[in-house]
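> forwarded from #structure-qc
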């Protein structure tokens, strides 16, 4: 039986009117299709304070950032599920204020910036990284290909 993907989108009330949850979900589903992957993912759109708290508490960096990806598949706290359950890939957390600011700095739309942050975060959940130059080249190329297809 083929495993299905499930994307849950949670948007802070302050941003619900500005962020189309169905479009974010569709972008995440397209990343999973592109990468021939499936599983459960949670996308969270929050504010700078919310993402700063997560960044501080989990990564030791007391500053806001644009996107965080918390994989449920790696590290000491890997999520354990029943064999018949869909695999939980993890959470992608996006700062709406950072997305707005970066879209303005880069001179492109908020829609494109949110797409970029979703793709970037999900690629991290799927095992991509950009710590080394070779990894970065592969991740950026994959990211660009997915973004062009959206």
């Amino acid at each position: 039986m083929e495993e299905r993907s499930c994307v849950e989108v949670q948007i802070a009330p302050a941003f619900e009117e500005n962020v189309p949850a169905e479009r974010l979900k569709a972008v995440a589903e397209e990343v999973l299709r592109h990468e021939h992957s499936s599983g459960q993912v949670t996308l969270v759109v929050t504010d700078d304070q919310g993402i700063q708290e997560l960044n501080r508490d989990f990564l030791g960096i007391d500053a806001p950032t644009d996107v965080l990806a918390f994989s449920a598949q790696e590290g000491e706290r890997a999520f354990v599920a029943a064999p018949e359950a869909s695999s939980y890939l993890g959470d992608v957390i996006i700062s709406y204020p950072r997305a707005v600011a970066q879209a303005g700095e880069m001179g492109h739309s908020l829609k494109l910036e949110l797409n970029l942050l979703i793709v970037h975060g999900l690629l991290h959940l799927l095992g991509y990284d950009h710590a080394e130059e070779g990894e970065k080249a592969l991740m950026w190329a994959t990211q660009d290909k997915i973004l062009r297809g959206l």
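QC bot note: The chain has a mean pLDDT of 91. The two ends are 28 Å apart (CA to CA).
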